[in-house]
Structure formats: C-alpha cells, structure tokens
Design goal:
Layout: E1 22-26, H1 30-41, E2 45-49, H2 67-74, E3 77-83, H3 86-92, E4 105-106, H4 112-119, E5 126-129, E6 131-134, E7 138-139, H5 145-159, H6 163-169, H7 174-181, H8 185-198, H9 208-218, E8 224-227, H10 232-244, E9 248-250, E10 257-261, E11 264-269, E12 273-275, E13 278-281, H11 299-306, E14 312-321, E15 331-337, E16 345-351, E17 365-374, H12 376-379, H13 382-399, H14 403-406, E18 407-415, E19 439-441, H15 452-467
Amino acid sequence: MVYRIHPINRCKDVSSGDVKMRACIIGAGVGGLATAIRLLQKGYKVDVYERGYLLGGRALSCKFDERYDSLLKKFEMRIRGIEPSLEELKELAKGYSMDLGFHLIGGGKNGATVRLLQEINAGVKFAGSRLGFVGERIDYPILRAGDKMAMLPRIMQLLFTRKEKIEEMKRMSVEELIEKYGRGTMNLVLRLFPRLITTVNNLQKISAGESLFAQRELMGGHPVVYPKGGLGKISEAMADYVKRNGGRIYLNARVRKIIIEDGRARGVMAEEEREYDAVIATMPVQHLFTVAKREEFPKEWVERIKNLEGTGSFISYHAMDGIDEKLLDKSFVIMEKNDSFDGGEVVGMIDFKMNYLNGVAPHGKCLVQSYVICTPQEARDANKMEELREMVERNLEKLLPGYRKRMDWCIYSSICHLDGVAKTIDNEKPGVATPVKNLYIAGDSVNSKGVGVNCAVDSSRLIMEEIKTPSLL
Ligand SMILES: Cc1cc2nc3c(=O)[nH]c(=O)nc-3n(C[C@H](O)[C@H](O)[C@H](O)COP(=O)(O)OP(=O)(O)OC[C@H]3O[C@@H](n4cnc5c(N)ncnc54)[C@H](O)[C@@H]3O)c2cc1C
C-alpha cells in the first residue's frame, strides 16, 4: 500500500538560516524523552507521540484509582492480590504516590539518568543508599570494612581488568567466574550483584564481562537512588526541558503506522500522516511490528527481534503506619534457594525510600516497595507468584518483626516486561539502527549501558552516535 504523505514545511532555524531536520519519537517514556532532549540539543525539531495519558511510560507516578489496574495491563502487568480489598484500597491509598511498581535507579550520580538530569539542571533530588542484606542476620551495609579489605585485591583485579580482557569475558558466564574466584564473601557478592544488575537469576545466562563492566561504570555513587517526590519527577523534568526548548509532546496520540517507502522511514501516521527525517521507536522492540510492517525488514532480523526475551518480576507494596526510623531510606537485598525457579536461587530487594520524608506517603507512613526477579514465564504462573509473595513477606518479617500489625494495606503484582530485553549471553541486545533507513530503536531494549531506566536513558547517547551518519545530515 502506498501512503499519501502531506509534506510539512521545513522549519527555518532563525539564527543560522539553516533548514532543521525533523525527528519523531514514538513513546514518552524516559528513553523517548532523553532522546528528545539530545536531539533538541543538536538542533532538531522534535515531536514526541505518546499513546497514553501519562508521561514516563513504565517509569511513571500515579495515584491509586480505578484506572490503576488498566494502567498495569497496558504494560503487561497483573494485580495478583490486594489487602484488604480493591474498594477499601481506593480510600486507604489516598495521599500516596505510586509507580507501576518497585523502582530504584542503579548507580546514583554515575548512572545515565542522574547524569542527564544534572546536565539539564533539572533540580530533581534523590534519596540514595547503600545495600543491606537479609540473611541469617541482617547486615547493613552488606560488606563490612573487614570483608572489603579481604576482598580488595580480588575486586581490584576484576574491576580494573583491561577493557579488552572484559570484552573477552563477555562470553564467560558468572557461574564460571564464581568457580574461579567465588570464595568467602566474594561468593556472596558474585551471586548477588550480577543478578541485581541484569534482573536475571540464572548465573549461567549472565555474562561475566557485562556484569564487571557495569559494576565498574557505577563505582563511586550510591548503589541505588529514588527521586524525591516520586519516580514521575524524572519524566516531568525531562518533558519540561523538551517543551521549553521547542519540542512538542502529544499525549493520547497513538502512532498507528510507521510509513516506510523504498526501505526508508518517511514519517508516521497518528491522527494524520506526518513526514519526518528520523523516526525513533521506543516501545519494547518486540512490539515494533505492531506499527511497522514486518515485510519491510529482512526476515532474519524480524525473527531475531521477535524472539528476544525480556525480564519478569514479582512486585509488592506494603503500606506501613510508621516504621523504625533506622530503616527509612535503606534498601535490603534478599536471596533464597528455590529449585523450581530458573537459576535455582532467587534474588530480590526490599526498600524503604518511598516514605513521608521523601514526599510520596502521608505523614508518618512508608510504602515498603519490594521485588523478586523471575523470568517472564514464571511471572505468568500464579503459583510461582504466590511463592515469591511468601518469600518477600518472610524477609519483611525479619526486617520489621510483627509488621502485619502496622500494615494499612498491601498490593502485589507481576510483570512480564520489566526490561524490554534481558542482558544475557544468549540474548544479544540490538543496536539502535534498524535495516530500514532513518528508522531507529531506543529505550531499554537496545545495547546501551546499564539496565532498566539507565539503559533507556543511555540509549539516547547511542542514537546521537548513530544519527551523525551522512544519510541524515
Ligand atoms: C514494575 C516495574 C518495575 C521496574 N523496576 C525498575 C527498577 O527498579 N529499576 C530500573 O532501572 N528499571 C526498572 N524497571 C524498568 C524501567 O521502568 C524501564 O526499563 C524503563 O522505564 C523503560 O523506558 P523506555 O522509555 O525504554 O520504555 P517505556 O517506558 O515502555 O516507554 C515506551 C512508551 O511508548 C509508548 N508507546 C508504545 N507504543 C506506542 C505507540 N504505538 N504510539 C505512541 N506511544 C506508544 C508507551 O505507552 C510508553 O509510554 C521496571 C519496570 C516495571 C514495569
């Protein structure tokens, strides 16, 4: 089918008299907004189309109301349980700011997200912490000074391995790394951090090189941070920059088709057809073919993209009426053996940053957010989600003995698309260029640095590197 495109008038850059290039971004998640910022900084005219009514994509903030369930479904999430009941929660959850579920951003000031926000002077403040561990006893932080000293030589050797050596190690699994170096506390460290970095439990699937590289990049900042005022502050600040700098963001504007002619993306069809010099799609990449005809791409590329695996998770919120002040703002890693899960051991986190001091809960209250890593298949299994709920609650009991007496309400859910594409050895993330000219992919599906929010934001850097090519300029 041939589309009729109404060409838009090219905009004159008043200062230089240059003709500006026009870019269209599909999706106002953090990946799309970060890309919009970078393109505006390079002088592009930028339009962002978002199918939903909220900014932020999977990293949004909202209030609990009747739309929460449908919002979750839009992102392939499912509520698995509510206490006391949905009706009562509508009243009880008033005054809380929620996200789709557990969110912490890795690496603090060294992660792509905080760095970009600082660069644009966004003024977003973060609550940051180290990580504790809930084992037989509770350790905060996980590593005591003595442990660190004992591990230091090995850590230095691994973290400061030459880049080339790390490249070689990309095909080596963390399991192999543990066999070689995993004695004493180092064993615990290697069983925890690579899993947290990739949101994958199976150590055979996690690349040793990727994990070490990620850990090295993030050294020196808070291991995890949460924005004061709620996760939505990130997308709000980014959108504000976009609008102040002449970009346009259309909400409730679903892109129905990417118009491709002769192997080149010419524009998109939302309410009407519009022509662009670059089209950047940021939905999980497996969904690209809902808006771009698969016949326009080589078969092998379509097959590869369609078969890329995301990551899953169990997520819960427990609203507490006051907690021990010593716990406020801290995060704890949990780990249990469980042979019925891929990897034989499951890792998760319980975090206390969503509290009244950070402006996301009513006075004196705290929304304890938790998650446990699983595969997308496991996330679809109600019995397995029940097992993970029990695991979270067992560990929560260790941190907050008798917590149920102080619990106002709780909600738990599962997600099959935490990350667009898992960072594993057998699941190579694609680059931002596609076989169709002027069509790019960005967001957490591509091979940028970090996972989740950081990966999505960092994809904007890869877009700028790619888009410098003469085909566009
Ligand atoms: C419950 C949950 C917990 C998570 N926890 C963490 C965490 O702790 N730490 C972390 O770093 N990451 C976490 N993540 C992952 C993180 O949220 C994502 O990696 C990140 O938000 C992805 O951003 P993105 O811009 O790539 O994609 P998205 O946020 O998915 O944005 C894509 C946007 O495109 C829009 N869209 C799709 N199709 C169309 C269309 N046809 N037309 C117009 N718009 C369209 C969507 O509505 C969406 O807003 C979590 C995710 C979930 C769901």
